[in-house]
Amino acid sequence: MEEHKRGAVLQLARRARAPLRAFAAAVEAAVDELVDAYDDGDEGWRGGGAGGGSRARFVEVTLTDGCFLLEMMRVGRLVLKGKPVRDYAPNDRSSASTGSISCARTSRPT
């Protein structure tokens, strides 16, 4: 699954014509607010405690998962509108398109 998510990050960065570090910097700029949104009390995400590098891992996970979800929504929207998904091959099983297309086809109103 992580391979699929990383592919979505690359697709989004490619379409935005922006370097990955720009996306990471945007997440890093909001990391305190993002961490505060979790109410599980896990202080490890804050970079303290035994994890040490947990803050960097939080940025990585947030960026990767966020891009994957955005890509799934984008592709699902295209499918629901009957538009072609041009940036993925129809048989590309390592992309966000596979799940989006399946979800969109089963949830399309009749």
UniProtKB/TrEMBL annotation:
Domain of life (superkingdom): Eukaryota
Pfam families: DUF247
Ranges annotated as biased composition (Polar residues): 92-110
Chain positions covered by the region annotation Disordered: 85-110
Protein name, UniProt field: Uncharacterized protein
Organism: Digitaria exilis
